[in-house]
Write a structure and sequence with these properties.
Its EC number is 2.1.1.6. By secondary structure, the chain is α/β, with parallel strands linked by helices. The chain is built from 12 helices and 7 strands. It is about 50% helix and about 20% strand. The relative contact order is 0.12.
Length: about 260
């Protein structure tokens, strides 16, 4: 390419970089820098974050552990976690609904797991599912460090589409009063239909879905709005540390099979 042609494209390139600078920064932090640090340290980012928690957070204090993870994400490495803004929405909804049994698909590092667990009513139970064994090992340690035992929070390692059919028989979950979908948005619709098909959603159950705007779950939202079995509401938020990137939590209330 000649210098003249390159110069002709320069204004366009500058315009795109300015307009999408937040997405560019997110790409650098979540992909490029993370991959470099993974190679240099031999540890995953979640493992590095847990090491930071061990030396800076108070054991048995889930609130302090969550604050420590937020600090790590803002000042050390971007964690791609739910963050405090969405976390407040999640905790408020869990406290309002007071589920006897809650289900989380996508434990990740355990951040949202702690949010749900600390908002459960007395005697409440949470089952959380994580497909990656190495990530699940970090989350398990974080959950126990926060003071929650296996009677309150049980972590299941496996693919959601394989775990859901076994929830009733193997894990004695007959109904999920509240469900958080926080794994892969492209799997939300499939797993919601699996929960329906296995009669795990009682009438009045609340289904929450993170990241429905970014990266987005359009088929899931279209189904929830058009099937006639859900009352839908969208809580608009931004990504942690990237408020200009708009995201949201979908809140579905199940009316029954109908």
């Amino acid at each position: 390419m000649s210098p003249a042609i390159a110069l002709a494209f320069l204004p366009l390139v500058v315009t795109l970089l300015v307009r999408y600078r937040h997405y560019f920064r997110l790409l650098v932090r979540t992909v490029l820098l993370r991959s470099l640090r993974d190679c240099l340290s031999g540890l995953r980012m979640e493992e590095r974050a847990f090491s930071y928690v061990l030396t800076h957070a108070l054991p048995g204090d889930p609130g302090h552990i969550l604050t420590t993870l937020d600090h790590w994400s803002s000042h050390c490495e971007y964690l791609s976690h739910m963050g405090p803004a969405k976390g407040q929405i999640l905790m408020r909804l869990v406290e309002e609904k007071a589920p006897a049994c809650a289900l989380e698909l996508g434990t990740y590092c355990g951040y949202s797991t702690l949010l749900i667990a600390r908002a459960l009513p007395p005697g409440g139970r949470l089952l959380t599912v994580e497909r990656d064994p190495r990530t699940a090992a970090v989350a398990e340690k974080l959950i126990r460090l926060a003071g929650f035992d296996e009677h309150t929070v049980e972590l299941i390692v496996g693919r959601s589409e394989e775990v859901i059919p076994r929830l009733r028989t193997q894990y004695q979950l007959s109904r999920a009063d509240l469900v958080l979908l926080a794994h892969r948005p492209r799997c939300y619709l499939r797993d919601l239909q699996l929960l329906e098909g296995h009669a795990l959603l009682p009438a009045g159950a609340t289904v929450l879905a993170d990241h429905v705007l970014f990266p987005g779950a359009p088929r899931f939202l279209q189904y929830a709005k058009s099937c006639g079995r859900y009352h839908c509401r969208l809580h608009h938020t931004g990504l942690p540390d990237f408020p200009a990137i708009k995201d949201g939590i979908a809140q579905l209330t199940y009316a029954g099979p109908g």
